[in-house]
Specification:
Elements lengths: L41 H22 L5 E5 L7 H7 L4 E6 L2 H11 L2 E4 L13 E6 L8 H12 L2 E11 L2 H6 L9 H15 L1 E6 L2 E9 L1 H9 L4 E11 L3 E8 L8
Parallel strand pairs: 1-2, 1-4, 2-3, 4-5
Antiparallel strand pairs: 5-9, 6-7, 8-9
Helix pairs in contact: 1-2
GO molecular function, one term: methyltransferase activity
Pfam families: Methyltransf_12
Keywords: Methyltransferase, Transferase
């Protein structure tokens, strides 16, 4: 006999902000038993997804996009996907990650079009294009070069006027690093991150024993300059600590600024 899928317990909607608070009753409580983002605190898990939904909604409002197709890139087991599904029940939503069981869960639980991603940015390809791509806590783990390469790659998957919404580590993370064990890279490597951050606005170090995967830190100025290096990008939103009071968020629209009116 199969074991029933675990479910998230009820959470008081008063702890959430609109527009996500209005959706709480429609958000799936189905939880993957292998969800790496759930650590026993249902309120924080749901509020984190709600916070992402709120900043995505703000970017959509500012851009004027009404998405019919979405991609949650690096979706895991659906911490944010469940909110996108609740808020956009008619949209075609895709999820991708490097863990097959996570994307299989998203497909079964949220009706997504799931596909397996990879770590080679140059070889990444999407089966279709999208009106919205959400990238939460991915570039926060990549080097400067790979961050720019991935942003350009994902931007190329947007439909005209489509929106790329990305989370980043900024000044808040810089100031709290010592309190949080230097985000797993150690004091020495964090000092290297700080040095490069001070010199050029972007710092990165691998996690011990993990080449090409670690912790990054980028300034608002670096993000603004990076946006200018993504051809055709219009900056719709940049907000510090917009996701879960922790990550900065930038939204880039596939709408060249030069020569446009309105």
């Amino acid at each position: 006999m199969e074991r029933p899928m675990p479910e998230l317990p009820a959470v008081d909607a008063l702890h959430l902000r609109n527009p996500a608070a209005l959706l709480l009753g429609q958000v799936s409580r189905e939880l993957s038993p292998e969800d790496g983002m759930f650590h026993g605190n249902a309120e924080h898990y749901l509020s984190c997804g709600a916070s992402a939904y709120n900043v995505i909604s703000a970017a959509l409002d500012l851009s004027g996009v009404r998405p019919r197709s979405m991609l949650d890139f690096g979706a895991g087991a659906g911490r944010v996907t469940r909110w996108l599904r609740a808020g956009h029940p008619q949209a075609a939503i895709a999820t991708t990650d490097i863990r097959p069981r996570d994307i299989a869960f998203c497909q079964a639980a949220f009706g997504t079009r799931s596909w397996l991603s990879g770590i080679d940015i140059d070889r990444l390809s999407a089966p279709e294009t999208y009106d919205l791509i959400w990238v939460g806590s991915v570039i926060t783990h990549l080097s400067e070069e790979n961050s720019l390469r991935l942003m350009r790659k994902l931007f190329s998957w947007l439909n005209p006027l489509g929106l790329l919404v990305v989370s980043l580590h900024g000044r808040f993370v810089q100031h709290r690093a010592a309190q949080f064990d230097h985000y797993g890279v150690g004091a020495g490597r964090w000092a290297d991150i700080e040095r490069d951050y001070a010199a050029r606005g972007f710092g990165y170090a691998d996690y011990p024993g993990q080449e090409g995967y670690g912790i990054s830190l980028c300034s608002p100025a670096w993000m603004a300059a990076a946006a200018e290096r993504v051809a055709g990008a219009r900056v719709v939103l940049f907000s510090e600590r917009a996701w879960d009071g922790h990550h900065d968020v930038v939204a880039l629209q596939n709408r060249p600024v030069t020569g446009q009116s309105g």
